């Protein structure tokens, strides 16, 4: 059954032993983030957390979606396969031409069932309006300041409701909101988002945008607000389909817009498109880096309402893995059938690895039937919805969820001079590695056919010679010895700006060693932690600028510069991390919090990458 507010969801999590109540006071400024970061990355203690003493009258729920079991509990499904199969069967039944009267009746029943999922406006008393604050003050809520160099406190799990002023079609999106005052926040909708498109339409008409931000309610709303639905599809229709019951909407008190009646909080207000944009940020973002300050609209609060026993929902984003990964994973499973039916029948499966942060790396499995099919799939995906923001795409015939096997195949089988294809196009607004805002290089790695070239590996003796030789070279700090077998050198160096890859590669060839690939990464990175290396290097490359083929004799050696590049014109962000004072404070109170085991701060593994305090790397 659907949940009537977050309190019912909390009880469901508790019944599954997936929630821990923290009764002692914890400061929403930095401290809740540090605790959540440790727990979300824990192998044994990853649970939802309910902070009952936040310094306000409201408890705070966080990490509630932070595992497959909890996101499935939120969506009221047993597992991802259940909803995937449900969508598949629904699409197939709708596309199938009825062959007789009995089949026609089945189709009509299905259409009637689907029509019952459409949201409906109710005139009944709404639980979300149990208490009304006509003189609103956002300070009443336990709003988080997540990371030390964030621009302030941010509402991190808002469901922002707007309407297209021309069609009247509703949109529910998730856009962070920086608190500026008691009644003002930022409205951080990116240029690719529907909220930003609505803003443009209202600007043309010179009208204010009525907005209602809901917090909580049935947890399925939070997922649906993050789902990559096409423009014009109501998120509350998806919510109705997932929970098998329509969403009841109620009119707001001060704005001409409707919201789910079971929301825990409703923040009513407006954005005036004619008002100058204001500086918002920085913010420790889901990429694992700070998104830098930029100009966004101001949201003006006109009223706050809430339900009885309301719970404030929040999330923390930062260096993966974090809770948002499970939103991504749910979308991956829910939208796979739609992807297959939308002109890509050869797609078998898809995986968005955790450390690819949704858009930096996607692995797609296909049934490979003809030459160039990987390129066909890549071009299709790069022109489709939010997939247009993908940076690196691996197309393979192998199980994409067996990431080790896919990476092994790339290392062993791919001819880097033939099986890499480059393009350019739109990228995420948070992309920091490109020279141009939200636009840059893309890379397709075609792993659908084995290279005709013989597999050549360096022997253990050769690996030892090369390792020793590289260590003796100037400015080299460390080499990943594991990758040497595949004729790949992963290097840490002092300064990438003064590094000449061609001279380095020629030096290797003078000793008659045929190199396949040279990769540079930052000083301070643990180069034996594959996931962290992937996260950091993928974030730091523009494939067209930072991946080169260097010709030595008849060989084409691939060079990848995965280092930070603060010397470029664009500002370069620092990774997100907790400061030492916060880490020490949480270490001191850890025993009192009720956890069975001590968890180290994940930020300690990031500190070596930090060359200066602040959200931006110094040039």
Topology:
Elements (H helix, E strand, L loop, with lengths): L5 H10 L3 E4 L8 H10 L7 E4 L8 E3 L5 H7 L5 H16 L5 H15 L4 E2 L9 E3 L20 E2 L3 E5 L6 E4 L3 E5 L2 E3 L7 H12 L3 E7 L4 H7 L8 H9 L4 E4 L6 E3 L4 E7 L6 E3 L2 E2 L5 E2 L2 E3 L1 E9 L5 E2 L10 H18 L5 E5 L9 E6 L6 H9 L10 E5 L6 H11 L6 E7 L12 E9 L12 H13 L3 E4 L8 E6 L7 H10 L6 E5 L8 H11 L2 H4 E6 L2 E7 L18 H14 L26
Parallel strand pairs: 1-2, 3-20, 4-12, 22-23, 23-25, 27-28, 28-30
Antiparallel strand pairs: 2-3, 5-19, 6-9, 7-8, 7-11, 9-10, 10-19, 11-14, 12-13, 14-19, 15-18, 16-17, 21-22, 24-25, 26-27, 29-30
Helix pairs in contact: 4-9, 7-8
Quick one: CATH superfamily of the domain at 74-78 and 116-313?
A: Electron Transport, Fmn-binding Protein, Chain A
Average pLDDT across residues? 93
Q: How much helix, percentage-wise, in residues?
A: 25-40%
CATH topology of the domain at 74-78 and 116-313, what is it called? Pnp Oxidase, Chain A
From the 3D coordinates, which CATH architecture of the domain at 74-78 and 116-313 would you assign? Answer: Roll
């Amino acid at each position: 059954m659907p949940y009537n507010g977050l309190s019912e969801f909390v009880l469901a999590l508790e019944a599954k032993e997936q929630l821990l109540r923290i009764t002692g006071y914890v400061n929403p400024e930095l401290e809740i983030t540090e605790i959540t970061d440790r727990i979300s990355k824990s192998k044994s203690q990853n649970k939802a957390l309910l902070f009952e003493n936040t310094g306000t009258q409201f408890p705070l729920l966080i990490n509630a979606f932070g595992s497959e079991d909890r996101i499935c509990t939120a969506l009221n499904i047993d597992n991802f396969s259940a909803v995937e199969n449900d969508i598949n069967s629904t699409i197939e039944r709708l596309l199938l031409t009825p062959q007789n009267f009995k089949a026609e009746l089945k189709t009509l029943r299905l259409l009637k069932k689907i029509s019952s999922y459409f949201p409906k406006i109710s005139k009944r008393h709404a639980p979300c309006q149990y208490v009304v604050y006509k003189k609103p003050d956002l300070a009443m809520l336990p709003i988080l300041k997540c990371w030390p160099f964030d621009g302030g406190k941010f509402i991190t799990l808002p469901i922002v409701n707007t309407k297209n002023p021309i069609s009247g079609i509703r949109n529910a999106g998730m856009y962070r909101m920086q608190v500026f005052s008691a009644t003002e926040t930022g409205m951080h909708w990116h240029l690719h988002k529907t909220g930003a498109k609505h803003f443009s339409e209202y600007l043309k008409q010179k009208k204010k945008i009525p907005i209602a931000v809901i917090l909580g309610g049935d947890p399925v709303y939070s997922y649906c607000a993050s789902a990559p639905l096409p423009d014009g599809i109501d998120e509350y229709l998806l919510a109705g389909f997932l929970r098998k019951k329509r969403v009841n909407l109620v009119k707001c008190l001060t704005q001409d817009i409707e919201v789910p009646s079971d929301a825990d909080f409703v923040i009513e207000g407006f954005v005036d498109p004619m008002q100058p944009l204001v500086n918002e940020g920085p913010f420790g973002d889901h990429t694992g880096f700070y998104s830098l300050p930029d100009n966004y609209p101001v949201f003006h609060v006109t009223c706050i309402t809430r339900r009885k026993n309301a719970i404030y929902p929040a999330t923390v984003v930062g260096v993966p893995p974090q809770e948002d990964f499970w939103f991504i994973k749910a979308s991956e499973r829910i939208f796979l059938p739609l992807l297959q039916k939308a002109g890509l029948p050869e797609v078998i499966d898809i995986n968005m690895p955790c450390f690819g942060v949704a858009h930096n790396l996607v692995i797609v499995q296909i049934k490979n039937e003809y030459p160039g099919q990987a390129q066909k799939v890549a071009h299709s995906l790069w022109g489709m919805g939010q997939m247009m923001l993908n940076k690196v795409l691996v197309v393979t015939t192998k199980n994409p969820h067996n990431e080790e096997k896919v990476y092994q195949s790339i290392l062993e089988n791919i001819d880097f001079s033939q099986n890499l294809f480059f393009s350019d196009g739109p990228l995420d607004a948070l992309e920091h590695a490109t020279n141009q805002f939200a636009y840059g290089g893309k890379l397709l790695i075609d792993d659908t056919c084995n290279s005709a070239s013989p597999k050549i590996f360096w022997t253990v003796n050769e690996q030892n010679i090369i390792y020793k030789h590289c260590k003796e070279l100037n400015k080299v700090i460390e080499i990943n010895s594991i990758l040497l077998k595949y004729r790949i050198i992963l290097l840490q160096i002092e300064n990438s700006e003064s590094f000449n890859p061609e001279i380095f590669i020629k030096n290797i060839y003078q000793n008659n060693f045929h190199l396949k690939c040279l990769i540079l990464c930052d000083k301070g990175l643990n180069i034996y932690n594959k996931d962290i290396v992937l996260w950091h290097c993928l974030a730091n490359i523009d494939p067209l600028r930072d991946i080169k083929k260097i010709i030595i004799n008849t060989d084409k050696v691939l060079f990848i510069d995965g280092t930070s590049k603060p010397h470029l014109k664009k500002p370069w962000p620092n990774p997100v991390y907790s400061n030492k004072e916060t880490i020490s404070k949480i270490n001191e109170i850890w025993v009192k919090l009720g956890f069975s085991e001590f968890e180290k701060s994940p930020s300690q593994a990031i500190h070596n990458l930090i060359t200066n305090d602040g959200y931006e790397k110094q040039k």
